[in-house]
Amino acid sequence: MAAGRGRTGRAGRAGRAGVTAALAVTVTAGALGAPALAATPGAGDGHQGHHGHHATLRAMRAALNEDAPGVTVQAKDRHGAWNAAAGIGDLARQTPRGAHDHYRVGSITKTFVSTVVLQLVAEGRLGLDDRIGQWLPGVVEGNGHDGDRITIRQILSHTSGIFDVMSDEDVRRKVFSEEFLDHRYDAWTPEQHIAIAMRHKPDFEPGTGWHYSNTNYVIAGKLIERITGKPYAQEIEQRIIEPLGLHETSVPTTGPTLPKPASRAYTRLSDAPGAKNHDVTELNPSIAGAAGGMISDSADLNRFYTALLRGRLLPPKQLAEMKTTVPKGDDRPGQRYGLGLEPFKTTCGRVVWGHGGDIHGSASGAASTADGRHAVALNFNGPEGEMKAVLDAEFCGKGKR
């Protein structure tokens, strides 16, 4: 989802309530600094003072605003794990954000999907430079789209040129305007998403540019099913969730609720002055599917990214392919993207690897050092939050190594 990038105001934020392209896209400015609710004491454990996470906690509190009332985080380093939360988890009840909340992770799902595809590559069941039309004949066709000219690598790196379904005006109206309240429980199929995308012309010729398109990962989910004979959700569960013991992570298909503990999720669905901040906690995750429908918590996300970067999920060759990046284009100078994974450069020059994700009322980010020794995952229960400041504080704060 990531539709709406480049827009301003609340309509743009509502657009980004889909799945964001990356950490750098998820990192949006907190317009109000530190309002009164940000002064709410954070709930933490793990002896935060000993671990030197004071700067991170300060950045978390400062990042909160009227659209992102609460934040939850886990940082993991050589001292162990540190969990904390700040702000409000339920505006109606005025209860605090939980340090162990489940939340919708949005486009972080893409790293899981890409990992499964690369495992299939490692098993010799397909090649990164195979054409998508070879495996899904007739699926990517229409208005200039041609699956016989698009490789799997281009699908995973967003260099395919395939139109982003979340940029379709009818989809945007149902998903990102107040009409969403009437459609939040609608079921969407991958075939429906792809067919809508095929009504539009490609953004560019395959391999000649970069544009974030959720359609790419809907197609990747279909590819996994074609190769394995099982739904992508089942493959993620069997290949990643179960082996790593990610007990708080799930790949729901249509179930609309979050497991407990969880906070409420909020977003505005209109540009109108005084637009209501809606509770959008419940929704049918098929609206995102393989592009962003997963649920997790910060501890599981840290476990996943550290295991991935330490080589527990992919052989060295495929992990190197995942970390081979392309530039995002002139409108994002210096930013790069791999295969469902991207580098994020902190203000102190440290490069960490991860992904970000937005879906209605939920903005998440997860990143780890390349050796997997230091990781952080966080979530705001709103469509935006100053994630960059939190990540910089964690990886660059006093005493960080």
UniProtKB/TrEMBL annotation:
The keyword Hydrolase applies. It holds the Pfam family Beta-lactamase. Keywords: Hydrolase, Signal. GO terms for molecular function: hydrolase activity. This is Serine hydrolase domain-containing protein. Residues 1-38 form the signal peptide. The keyword Hydrolase applies. It is an enzyme of class 3 (hydrolase). InterPro entries: AmpC-like (IPR050491), Beta-lactam-related (IPR001466), Beta-lactam/transpept-like (IPR012338). Residues 67-393 form the Beta-lactamase-related domain. Coiled coil: none annotated. SUPFAM superfamilies: beta-lactamase/transpeptidase-like (SSF56601). Its EC number is 3.1.1.103.
